[in-house]
Amino acid sequence: MWPELILKAKRGGLNVIQTYVFWNIHEPEQGKFNFEGPYDLVKFIKTIGENGMFATLRLGPFIQAEWNHGGLPYWLREIPDIIFRSDNAPFKHHMEKFVTKIIDMMKEEKLFASQGGPIILSQIENEYNTVQLAYKNLGVSYIQWAGNMALGLNTGVPWVMCKQKDAPGSVINTCNGRHCGDTFTGPNKPNKPSLWTENWTAQFRVFGDPPSQRSAEDTAFSVARWFSKNGSLVNYYMYHGGTNFDRTAASFVTTRYYDEAPLDEYGFAEGTKMGHLKDLHRALNLCKKALLWGKPNVQKLSADVEARFYEQPGTKVCAAFLASNNSKEAETVKFRGQEYYLPARSISILPDCKNVVYNTMTVVSQHNSRNFVKSRKKNKLEWNMYSETIPAQLQVDSSLPKELYNLTKDKTDYVWFTTTINVDRRDMNERKRINPVLRVASLGHAMVAFVNGEFIGNYHKHIIIIIILSML
Which residue in 126, 148, 189, 317 could disulfide with 312, CB within 3.0 to 4.6 Å? Predict the structure, then answer.
């Protein structure tokens, strides 16, 4: 599966594959590692290189990614005095130990670009700015430690921290979002490039959500905008999301992950997104000399239209991006003595500062439509089923339900709490025709009720529930 998906990405005009490293997959039990089969990280990186592409290694080790426990293994919770993602000695010890192991594995196989391998970037931590204030001074010192620890591993390639304005030293702070060309405040030092680690091609879904929609045109506009404003790298999150198998997804996140990405859950091209972005990548590739060597310039063409162009003086190297921010009406503008028509909220790319080869609102690629049909071989298929191990009954003496994760140690998502209420004749209504009613308010997801050992009914909902039962 890996070679096929990587090849499809390459055919779509990509040249870098970005991947997380999942701590709870690779070290499910302390000191016991798993890099076999689908978890063979070295083989995956090698496969990327064998297909002529580069790789970005996002170690985290907290990765979020709508993944169970954010990628942190359960056993970490049972380490005495540990505080996750903080300037905390136990957490830093285990984090550094895991990160060092992964880096050493990559070095041993010569997989970093400094060794001739495909890995050109590595990431430490993940969107820490969103929680840093909660840790106060311990958050500030932790992020400094994490960056310096990573730099000390001497990989020979740059390290990044996404959405981290105070990324230390030479660690590059990067942007995540849908329109980083307009929202990113820039690197925190002038010698750092502008990198976009997550351009959200859609949105992950929780059960009950409608399909997430982001048009090919809007995605293309954001990418063209980014490179027109001196961006150096953009990563699509996701280009292919695939399937969350077993219990790997975070709470309520569907098994189908980013199905509306350029490659859908099954690896098929989605709608027009893959084709339209492929055309964009081809146009950007025509501009690479100007983007790398040209001097950036900005020219206002109208109230809502600007030209951003890169030109190398004394040569014919020149590329221009004509951008319209008018979201309602198309415009015709003049640039260097020539008229150009711009659809509403679009960017035209001119790799020679003269001829338009691409416009973000003009889709000319083939449209693909996915349909489901009944298989003629359906009765011959062999289905695989994942079955959770039923945990042993726990004797919990508590008037309130216990915290689920600590109780089950991440072995199951399900716990049944049982309680018994004894009702004698004095609790009954004096009128025999009126049965007593038991009302139960619960934050649980399901309830089953019995009276005198006889099943009465059940109820299921993801909100506060009230069950009314008639007593016998």
Answer: 317
The count of other CB atoms within 10 Å of the CB of residue 194 is 21
Give the CATH number of domain 2-286; options: 3.20.20.80, 3.40.50.150, 1.10.10.60, 1.10.1740.10: 3.20.20.80
Give the rounded distance of the alpha carbon of 68 from its chain centre.
13
**CB–CB of 101/143 below 8 Å?**
no
What is the DSSP annotation of 347-378?
EEEETTSS---EETT---SPP--------TTG
112 alpha carbon, distance to own chain's centre: 23
Question: For 81-103, what is the mean pLDDT?
Answer: 98
- Give the pLDDT confidence of 132-188 residue by residue, as tens digits: 999 999 999 999 999 999 999 999 999 999 999 999 999 999 999 999 999 999 999
Distance CA 280, CA 257 (A): 25
The overall pTM is greater than 0.85: yes
Q: What is the pLDDT of residues 103-133, one digit of tens each?
A: 999 999 999 999 999 999 999 999 999 999 9
Catalytic residue positions? 127, 198
Distance separating alpha carbons of residues 255 and 67, to the nearest angstrom: 11
Domain boundaries, the chain: 2-286, 295-359, 404-470
pLDDT-derived band at 428 (thresholds 50, 70, 90) equals confident
Q: Is 98 helix (H, G, I), strand (E, B) or coil?
A: helix
Length of the chain: 472
Which positions ≥6 away from 43 have C-beta within 8 Å? none
Going by DSSP bridges, is the β-strand pair 318-324/305-311 parallel, antiparallel, or unpaired? Answer: antiparallel
